[in-house]
Write a structure and sequence with these properties.
The chain has about 260 residues and is an alpha/beta fold. It has one domain: Leucine-rich repeat, LRR (right-handed beta-alpha superhelix) (Alpha-Beta Horseshoe), CATH 3.80.10. The strands form 3 sheets. A 9-stranded parallel beta sheet has the order 4-6-7-8-9-10-11-12-13, with no helix packed on it. The protein has a two-stranded parallel sheet with strand order 1-5. Strand 10, helix 8 and strand 11 form a beta-alpha-beta unit.
Length: about 260
Amino acid sequence: MAETEKSLDQENTDEIDIVQALRDKYCAGADDLDMFVLSVRSSKVPVDLVGAKQVASKQAQLDHLRDASISGSAASRAGDIGLLSKTAPNIQQLDISRCKFAGFSELVSITAQLPRLTSLDISGNKLGASGAAALAASAPNLRVLVLNHTGVSWADVVTAVTPLSNLQELHVGYNDITVLDPAPSLPSLELLDISGNKLSHWDDANAISAWPALHRLLLVDNPLHEIRYCGGFSSETSLVISRTQISDWSSIDALSMDIYNYSY
């Protein structure tokens, strides 16, 4: 029993907040930075950074961080309120895929502290429906959102992204999505990746064919069994439908009538 309790305590100890994960990733070698100055003979003279100066040297690295990835780390929480915005306020692209976050609420606590955030990858974190609506309000400038392998339903996706007027790329692969209903209005979306789901009817594709900016749709590894002409897609739309169950020529004919650029 004691051994079991110890293992659970160790597991909890291993989980860290996002700021600690950033420090572990980007400041681990800070002790070796700025440790030399050049002498008059251009030789290196060691300089010890101690106390506040050493802390400031580490902090400066995160202050200027714009593209951050802690993918696969033990991060599971946002940490103290305001700490992330104070530590790394300039992050624009954030990859926290395959971490240990659970639910939208913790992610919203992170995105709310990053006003410059335009790209967010949260693949591999298990999310629920609760808090999905708050994501857009906390990250209104998002242009790229990656939700692969998160367990979200299409309804959760719609709730989260409909208010994101600047969203250009949305990735929702491998989430067991069976229908694309309702289909939100996403006038700026250029790329939609719904690969690896369970879409079997072409009506789901029809539902999003009217999105004006959509020029790339990925339906790879879905059990689609037929394509019917709907006349909705633009001739500039690129469609990728490999590894489906489409096997009849009538579907290919319908595809060529509806869309010019496709990969089968």
